[in-house]
UniProtKB/TrEMBL annotation:
Protein name per the record: DUF2637 domain-containing protein
Residue stretches spanning the membrane: 21-45, 51-75, 87-107, 113-132
Highest taxon above the source species: Bacteria
Species the sequence originates in: Rugosimonospora africana
Keyword line: Membrane, Transmembrane, Transmembrane helix
Length: 362
């Protein structure tokens, strides 16, 4: 497993930071404009006071009401980074933001559009600020080691297919900083080992209980021993290769017994055995060469595990010729001490009126 830290490496969020500030500034400005509008039109100002003078008087208070929620939220965020709850600051921040939104909604109640627009802008600005500050607080705490890193995203499909595996993979990724595929592979392996160890532990407990006739003593023995540790040790000491070899011996196919050639009566019509013509042409006609083929074939029968390459190197011939010898022997063309062509000619010379067949080996 790798030791890289793809979980804690956060992507560059400077573009999102700038976008958040821009949207917050626009929304806060809109909320302040709505409050100034209310302050200019609702209070009983003297009729001689121009609207711009009213706006100048209302402006500081509107800005304070709007920024009050943000300032108190910033104080709360700073204290929460230090581990405090900052409940008082949070309550004060919420009250200030609620007052700003309420002024816009109540002040523009006669025009629902303006009430929704200015009230929504105030709510949006305050919500963006809270979410933005919360994200920065989590990043700071995670960088300081006071907050756990985030786990990889496994997707809905993975959670649906393997909920137990995905849950374990998530814990392993957080603990060992694995990637998605590394954590899933390790989780599957550990779950398999746990299931195998649990099954083995149950059998170990049964074995320990069977060693004691007194059930109380058996219970004490089982309770005293760490059954899981015994099962884990047994699994570590198991001879996997030895068991594989033993099972492979039992799975080996049985030897095929070669049937004895049938002795046919002379007056029986026999259909000649079809032998590949190409293979029959390759069998030597000369007795010395044919006998060598027979000797090599007999060695193949005695040592069936020898490969074609080993036999070719031992007898100084090509691997292709070893393949021809093996095919001819399997077809029964090397059973007789007489080459097949000579045997065929010998049968053709017998005037018995029967179809010629290759005689059986004496």
């Amino acid at each position: 497993m790798t030791t890289t830290n793809p979980i804690t490496s956060a992507p560059d969020g400077r573009a999102a930071e700038r976008a958040a500030w821009i949207f917050y500034t626009i929304a806060a400005a809109g909320s302040s404009i709505g409050q100034i509008w209310v302050g200019v039109t609702i209070p009983p100002w003297p009729a001689t006071m121009p609207w711009w003078a009213r706006a100048l008087l209302v402006l500081p208070f509107a800005v304070v009401v709007d920024l009050g929620g943000v300032v108190t939220a910033a104080f709360a965020d700073a204290r929460r980074r230090l581990g405090e709850t900052a409940l008082g600051w949070q309550v004060l921040s919420t009250a200030s933001a609620t007052g700003a939104v309420g002024i816009n909604i109540v002040g523009h109640h006669d025009i629902p559009y303006l009430a929704v627009v200015f009230g929504g802008l105030g709510t949006f600005a305050y919500t963006v600020w809270l979410m933005h500050s919360a994200a920065r607080r989590r990043d700071a705490l995670r960088a300081a080691g006071k907050l756990a890193p985030t786990a990889p995203a496994y997707g809905i499909g993975q959670w649906w297919r393997e909920p137990a595996v995905t849950r374990r993979a998530r814990d392993l990724a957080l603990q060992h900083r694995y990637t998605v595929h590394e954590s899933l592979t390790e989780a599957r392996r550990r779950l398999r080992e746990e299931r195998r160890t649990a099954a083995l532990a149950a059998q170990v407990e049964t074995l320990i209980r069977s060693r004691h006739k007194d059930p109380t003593i058996a219970t004490i023995a089982v309770t005293t021993l760490d059954i899981q540790a015994v099962a884990t040790t047994l699994a570590a000491q198991s001879d996997i290769a030895g068991w594989a070899r033993a099972i492979a011996v039992d799975l080996a196919p049985p030897p095929v017994e070669k049937p004895e050639p049938a002795v046919l009566p002379e007056d029986t019509d026999v259909v000649p055995v079809e032998v590949p013509k190409d293979l029959l042409r390759r069998v030597p006609v000369q007795q010395a060469d044919y006998q060598r083929w027979r000797d090599i074939w007999q060695q193949m029968l005695k040592t069936p595990d020898d490969t074609n390459s080993v036999l070719a190197a031992e007898h100084g011939i090509a691997v292709r010729q070893i393949q021809h010898i093996r095919a001819a022997g399997a077809a029964g063309l090397l059973d007789s001490p007489m080459p097949p062509v000579q045997r065929l000619l010998h049968l053709l010379q017998q005037p018995n009126g029967h179809h010629p067949t290759l005689p059986a080996a004496p």
